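Note to self: the last two entries modelled the partners one at a time, which told us nothing about the interface. This time every component goes in together.
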Amino acid sequence: DVKVTQSSRYLVKRTGEKVFLECVQDMDHENMFWYRQDPGLGLRLIYFSYDVKMKEKGDIPEGYSVSREKKERFSLILESASTNQTSMYLCASKGSSPYEQYFGPGTRLTVT
Amino acid sequence: GIQVEQSPPDLILQEGANSTLRCNFSDSVNNLQWFHQNPWGQLINLFYIPSGTKQNGRLSATTVATERYSLLYISSSQTTDSGVYFCAVDNTNAGKSTFGDGTTLTVKP
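The predicted structure of the combined assembly is written out below.
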């Protein structure tokens, strides 16, 4: 079974802090994704990566950066957390043939 | 990009009832998935179904790719079926998916 894990289920940070959210997958998938989910706005893609050290901006990259130094790990970085980044963050990885996407359990981030 | 529309947006059922959720998409797709988001927020894979029909217990799904829609059937619903059901599609294989807004299902005992 594919497993995608995220470093924290719940996280509380202060405005201005640097925040790292980590995601690890165990299926040797090439593609990994970071989404945020907010009530009424659905799932929105922040960044994705199709290979080590490669990244592509999604629909809402502002205020975020990512790092993929190893194939199994994809990190989301909030350089200076703000209250409007309070959200549910979901990581996913995607296999090839079939191109099926698997999600981690999510991280509920609160920025105060 | 591809537009995805799910219907109905909300559905309330009595335990034991059957239901059909629909996902329409605006362009041809290579990949289509159905997910169930549980009360803790995790998206659980239900079906990977870019075409054809699949069944898994009380759930089944059909995608008619030529007509650009997919249906998720839930039979003999249980309270544990409650949650949000999402359809996600893409036509680039390795690239990003487009998600529908979801159908919120509430099953009452």
